[in-house]
């Protein structure tokens, strides 16, 4: 009788659990899974307008792989990740360590570093475009140089990467700071008694202990970098000669789908982007077994 009552209670608890998560699951299916299935189908079709499609097989993918703009956009996206993810994670970890130290006005510094995340992207872009202006920009004025940061194809992607890193440091630093604050001080006290220095403590205690948080931050930052669109859209205008050197896959998807009106080609680019994100995520999960420490 007791086991039956326990079983009934467990079933009721399980039913309530499903009921609580049902809105999220339904929203995920309607807003994410079903649109992605439609995107996959559209990538094999030609868009005829008004929601009508004509199945054309692999033509969209064949044309996509033969397009030089597509491969240039793929290269730009991967290069953007290389420029932003390692440097951004390193700087975020450095800021988190500094904010975790015993300094005055710690709360104020945390707020200052987190402010870029709550600012509107359009406002952030306008400020940085003024900073990067080749004629009267503050950056050229300070260093006494004359570099076309946004219009020169050789440095335009680097300029976008600088803005992306600056915008994300605060958010990533807050995540890493939460991991740092969960490390017990007893580890450092014990290692100090054994004669370990600050550098040894960092590599033997701090880094292994925050590796799960660091891993999650890296995944989030990589996905964000692979899906970059709004930053490039607002930093580089359509008439900018450097557009092809900074055009990302999502930006190319926008141009194909909503400017050129080729929804099928745009859907193929979207599927390709999701495939890259999936491959990168799988490699990260495989690699994390060698450096992420989940033991307390």
Instruction: Please report which band the strand proportion falls in: under 5%, 5-15%, 15-25%, 25-35%, 35-45% or over 45%.
Output: under 5%
Strand order of the largest sheet: 1-2
Range of helix content: over 70%
User: How many distinct domains?
Assistant: 2
Q: What's the CATH class label of the largest domain?
A: Mainly Alpha
Architecture of the largest domain in CATH? Orthogonal Bundle
The low-confidence parts are: none
Instruction: Please outline the major beta sheet.
Output: 2 strands, antiparallel
Question: Based on the structure, what is the oligomeric state of the protein chains?
Answer: single chain
Structural class: mainly alpha
| Full CATH superfamily name of the largest domain | MetI-like
Radius of gyration: 24 Å
> What number is the mean pLDDT?
88
Through-space gap between termini = 40 Å
SSE order in H/E notation?
Answer: HEEHHHHHHHHHHHH
Number of strands: 2
Query: Within the CATH hierarchy, at the fold level, what is the topology of the largest domain?
Result: MetI-like fold
Total number of helical segments? 13
What key phrases describe this protein's structure?
two-stranded antiparallel ribbon, mainly alpha, 2 strands, 296 residues, 2 domains, MetI-like fold
Model description:
Helix 12 runs antiparallel to helix 13 (263-291). Helices cover 76% and strands 3% of the residues. It has helices at residues 2-42, 59-65, 68-100, 106-118, 121-131, 138-143, 156-181, 185-193, 198-226, 230-235, 243-246, 249-259, 263-291; strands at 45-49, 52-55. The protein folds into two domains: 2-32; 69-291, MetI-like (MetI-like fold, Orthogonal Bundle). The chain starts with a helix and ends in a 5-residue tail after the last helix. The chain is mainly α and 296 residues long. It is built from 13 helices and two strands. The protein has a two-stranded antiparallel ribbon with strand order 1-2. A hairpin with a 2-residue loop joins strand 1 (45-49) and strand 2 (52-55).
